[in-house]
Write a structure and sequence with these properties.
Elements lengths: L1 H14 L1 H20 L3 H27 L7 H13 L5 H14 L13 H5 L1 H4 L14 H24 L1 H20 L10 H6 L6 H6 L11 H10 L1
Helix pairs in contact: 2-9, 3-4, 3-5, 3-9, 3-12, 4-8, 8-9
Bound molecules: zinc ion (2 copies).
One zinc ion (ZN) binds next to helix 3 and helix 5.
Length: 237
């Protein structure tokens, strides 16, 4: 099982498709306003990005799957995992393994990302970091996550194709927003020691209450402006 998962992850890493899409998203997020200004599609993309980082990345990938602070229903698993694949958030097993390693080694040389890691590890995360399946336990048997592993690339490519035809600005801005948020959380959140920021927490679904989170991984409400908690987790507990 571990071996077959590693093979699957290697496939993603070597194709570079995941990383390429994330970087196209970041380029769209940063460069588009310089050329076209803040159009309605751009602002809508940023809003979708905030929803994704809040509910898919923070509330679900991070707090439900990685730390088990709340329990989603079966249909919620499939909805969030489909959205995670559709917007290139990463296969959840990959995300969870890497994140648990981060908690084990944060602010040391073995941290897979953050200020002590090099720029490559922060900007090209999936290309240079291993999936760390040794940090996954019963997750490996989790049926919805296994389902996402099988269909991740197909869902992601299909959504990219459809959205590239319908509304590429909205789509790639949303993809870029989520990826840029990860980079900001991983680097600024640990810059000169782990820290909290009310303002950045609003734009990161509560993730920038980073010091509070590292002090107690099982805490489900991280701060005053924790939209992931007030928008979803509170109602599921
Ligand atoms: Zn951290
Ligand atoms: Zn965490």
């Amino acid at each position: 099982m571990l071996q077959s998962l590693s093979k699957l992850y290697k496939k993603y890493r070597h194709t570079g498709t995941h990383q390429a899409m994330n970087l196209v998203g970041v380029a769209m997020l940063l460069l588009y306003p310089m050329v076209q200004g803040f159009t309605a599609n751009y602002l809508l993309g940023a809003f979708v990005g905030i929803l994704l980082i809040t509910f898919v990345a923070s509330a679900y990938y991070h707090r439900a799957l990685s730390h088990r602070t709340w329990t989603p229903t079966k249909s919620m698993h499939y909805i969030f995992l489909t959205l995670g694949a559709a917007f290139w958030v990463l296969p959840a097993m990959y995300w969870v393994g890497l994140h648990r390693k981060h908690h084990r080694y944060y602010d040391t040389d073995q941290d897979p990302h953050g200020p002590k890691a090099g720029w490559k590890q922060n900007l090209l995360m999936v290309l240079v970091n291993n999936p760390e399946p040794s940090y996954l336990k019963r997750d490996l048997k989790h049926e919805p996550m296994r389902w996402q592993n099988t269909y991740y690339l197909r869902i992601a490519l299909f959504t990219t194709l459809v959205m590239a035809l319908i509304n590429p600005v909205l789509y790639f801005v949303a993809v870029g927003y989520v990826y840029s948020s990860f980079i900001m959380i991983n680097t600024y959140g640990h810059w000169r020691g782990v820290k909290d920021s009310h303002i950045l927490a609003i734009f990161s679904g509560g993730e920038l209450y980073h010091k509070t989170h590292h002090e107690d991984q099982r805490k489900s409400r991280l701060g005053v402006f924790d939209l992931g908690y007030y928008g979803l987790i509170k109602w599921m507990k």
